[in-house]
Amino acid sequence: MRLPLFWLTDYVDPGMDASKLAARLAMTGTEVDRVHTHGVSALENFVVGRVLEREQHPDADRLSVCQVAIGEGDVSTIVCGAPNVAAGQTVGVALPGSVMPDGTRLKKAKLRGVPSNGMILAEDEVGIGSDHAGIMVLDDDLVPGTPLAQVLPISTDVLELEITPNRPDCLSVYGVAREVHAATGAPLNPPPWMEDPGTPGPVEGVTVEVQDAEFCPRFTARLFEDVKIGPSPRWLKARLMAAGQRPINNVVDITNYVMLLTGQPLHAFNFDLVAGGKLVVRRAGQGEQMTTLDDQVRTLDSSMHLIDDGEGPTSIAGIMGGQRSEVREDTTRVLMEAANWHGPTLQRTSQKLGLRTEASGRFEKGLPPEQSMWGTIVATQLMLELTGARLAPGTIDVGGEGPAPKTIRLREEKVTRLLGTAVPIREQADILEALEFDVHDAGDGLDVTVPAFRRNDVTREVDLIEEVARIWGLEKLPATIPGHGMSARLTPEQRLRRRAGDALVGAGFSEAIGWSFQAPEMARRLRIDDSAVKLRNPLSEDLAVMRTTLLGSLLTSVRHNTARGAEDVRLFEKGSVYFDRPHRREPTAAEARSTPLPDERMHLAALMTGRIRPASWGDGNPPTADFFAAKGVLETVLGALRVDFTVVRGADPFLHPGRAARVLVGGEDAGWLGEIHPGVAAEFGLARVAGFELDFGAVLPHAVVAPHYEDLTSFPAIRQDLAFWVPADRTASELVEVVRGAGGKLLKDVRVFDVYAREGQTSLAVRLEFRAGDRTLTDDEISPQREKIVKAVAEKLEGELRG
C-alpha cells in the first residue's frame, strides 16, 4: 500500500521525517518496504506565475510565446504548447533547474529559435493529475513568485507499506493514522465518518435482495440524484495520484478515495441502467457470462456470486463491476453501494477468474460489516460536496452490524511472564486505548473490549499482550529464557542435523534455503514421477506442488550462482520434502480412515560442480567434481554422525548411468549418491554436477548423539595387502563388507587401493590394518584371520586370491 505523508497528516502529524516514521512503524510490526518521493523536487524552482502577454510563435502554429511574471519585477519568456494558455492567467511555472517527476532536470532551451526560460505546467507534469490537454489555471488572487509547493501538493514522501493479511484495517489511510497515533503519541483527529448527512429508512424505488447472507453479511447503498459528472478537484486527484490511483471522474474518484481512506471498497451503479431498480445478490449459474468494466467477458460457475438486476448480471460481487451499469458522462443518478463479502469465498472466485483488484485484495482478508457504513457515510459527504448531487431520503441496509464485541481479560501477571519484564498497567491501558480498544480496570489487570476492525485478529489474551509489546517497544524487551522448567536445549535430532550441516560447512559447502513449493514442470525436468502433493491454493502456477526431493531447488540455486560467474559451487540444503502417501511404510488404520495428510520427511542434500579444490602453482588443473568427490563428502557427513553405511548400484533416472548409487544405512535405503544425468543438468544450464541426498529419518536413528571416549593405543599395527580376482559384476563395497565381516575384532581398517580389470574379472587390492589395544600383534595371531578372509571371499563372492 502506498501512503502519501501529506494525506496522513490530515489525521495525524507525527512530527518526524519519513525515514524516522518508517523506522518507528517497522518496530511496531508495520513493515515499510521503501520510502520514495512522489512528484517533483528542487522545489525552490517551482513558483506561481502570471501570464502578462501571449503571442503566436513566429515559426510554429501550435506554440505560444508568453511573457510570464514570476516575482516582483521579474519576467521570463516561456514558450508554451498548451492550447488554453492566455494573457491574464495565474499559472504554475517550473524554472530552469526544476526536477520533474521522471527525474528530468529542466534547462534553458530554444524552441524553433525562440529562447524559453522554463515551463508553464499541466497537472501531470507535477504529479497531481493525469491531464495533459492544457495547463493548470490557478486562482487569480495568488501572488507571482509564491512557492508553488505552498499552493499545491506537488511533492510528498510516500511510504510503501507491506501489510500482513491479519491487518486489513491498515489497508487504509485512517487505519495507519491510528497506528501512528499509538506508536508516536501524536494527536489523532476523529474518523471522517463521524458526521452522517444521510438518514435511515427505505429508499423509494430501490430494492436489494440478498439470497446468500453468509456470503454477504451486509449490503448498504444510497441513491444520489442530479449528479453532475466532471473532473475531481486537484486536492483529491493529488491524493489519488500519490497513492497510485489514476483519476477518472468525480464519482469514480470518490469510490477510490473512500476505499483508500477508510479501507471499505465501494461501487457506483448508474441507477438509470439498473433494470427495475432492484439488485439481487445471488450465486452465478454454471457457465453464466458477463462483461466487466475492463471490457472482458467473464465466464462464471456456481461457486461464484454476482449482483444482478432485472436484465441479468451487473457486477461480480466484491471484485469488479459490470460494463452495462457503469457510470458515464451523461449519468445523473448514482446508486453508491458499500457491501461486505465473505473473504475466503471471494478469494477463490478471484483466483479462478484470474482477476484481482484493490477491492478483492481487501475483502479477502476479512473486513468487518460495520465498515460498510463508514464507507457509505464518507462517500455521501463527498458526493454532496463534489458532484452537486441531491441525496434521496433513506439508506439501504441489509444485514446490519457484526457480532457483539468480545471482552478479554488481560492479566498483569501474564503480561510480565510472557514478555519477561513488567509493563506498568497504566501504560498497557494507554496503549490499548490509543489503538481504540475499550479498556476498564479489573482486579488483576484490565478488561479489554475489541473494536470491530480488529475482531478477526485479536481473539485471545496473548493477542492483547502482543499489542502491548509492539507499541511499548520490542527493543525494550530483555533476552530471557522462559520459566516453568522449559528447556532451551536442542533435541538430539536437532543436534545431529546441525552437526551434519557443520560437517558440510567444514567441507567448503554453503547452505541454501529453497522453496518447499515448486512448479509441476519440475518433475519432468528431473525425470521423476509427478505424484506430488498438489496445493489447493498455490501462490502461483510455478509454485503449485510440494517438492518430493531437494534436488530441484538445489540445481536451481547452483544455476543461479554459475550464471553470475561462480565456477566452483558447493551448496547444501536441509529441508522438508512431501509425499502424497506415507513414504517407506503402509498407512496405519487411523490414517487409512481419515483424510490423509502429506507425509513430510526431513532431507539433507548437497551438490557440487566445478573443481574439487582451487588451482595452485603445484596443481594448475585440479580434477572436477565427480562421483568419488561426492562420495568423499558423504563419508565426511556420515562420519561426523558416526553412521556406518554402504553403497550399492543405483538406477535413479536423474543420475548418470554407471555413476549412480543408493546409500544404505542399517541395511535400509537412506538416499542417493552420484553424478546428475547430463540431460537433467542441461535442463538447468549446467555441465557436470555431483552430489547426494539423504533421508534424515533413515539416517539419524543409527547416529551417535554423544560418542564415547576410546583410548588411543601406542601399540603398532600390522598392515598387509591382499589382491583378489572377483567376477566383474561384483563391487568394491561388497568385497570390503565381506572382508570386514571375516576379519574379526582385530581388523581395524580396510581400504581398496588398486583396481585391475580383465575380461570377466576384476582384481581388487585391499590394505588391511590389524591392531590390538593391549599388545603388539604377531603374524601367528593374524594368519588365522587372513585365512578366514580368503575363504569368505571365495564362498560369498566367488573370488580367489591373486597369485
Structure description:
- Helix content is 26%, strand content 27%.
- The protein has 803 residues and is an alpha+beta fold.
- The model has no long low-confidence stretch (mean pLDDT 92).
- The strands form ten sheets. A seven-stranded mixed β-sheet has the order 26-29-30-34-33-32-31, with helices on both faces. A five-stranded antiparallel β-sheet has the order 5-4-3-6-9, with no helix packed on it. A five-stranded mixed β-sheet has the order 11-14-17-18-19, with no helix packed on it.
- The longest helix has 19 residues, at 779-797.
- It folds into six domains: 2-40 and 157-184, 2-Layer Sandwich (Phenylalanyl-tRNA Synthetase, Chain B, domain 1), CATH 3.30.56.10; 43-153, Nucleic acid-binding proteins (OB fold (Dihydrolipoamide Acetyltransferase, E2P)); 207-398, Phenylalanyl-trna Synthetase, Chain B, domain 3 (Phenylalanyl-tRNA Synthetase, Chain B, domain 3), CATH 3.50.40; 407-474, Phenylalanyl-tRNA Synthetase, Chain B, domain 1; 492-702, 2-Layer Sandwich (BirA Bifunctional Protein, domain 2), CATH 3.30.930.10; 718-801, Alpha-Beta Plaits, CATH 3.30.70.380.
- The chain contains 20 helices and 38 strands.
- A hairpin with a 2-residue loop joins strand 24 and strand 25 (445-449).
- Belongs to the phenylalanyl-tRNA synthetase beta subunit family. Type 1 subfamily.
- It comes from Solirubrobacter deserti.
- Tetramer of two alpha and two beta subunits.
- InterPro entries: aa-tRNA-synth_II/BPL/LPL, B3/B4_tRNA-bd, DNA-bd_dom_put_sf, Fdx_antiC-bd, Fdx_antiC-bd_sf, NA-bd_OB-fold, Phe-tRNA-ligase_IIc_bsu, Phe-tRNA-ligase_IIc_bsu_bact.
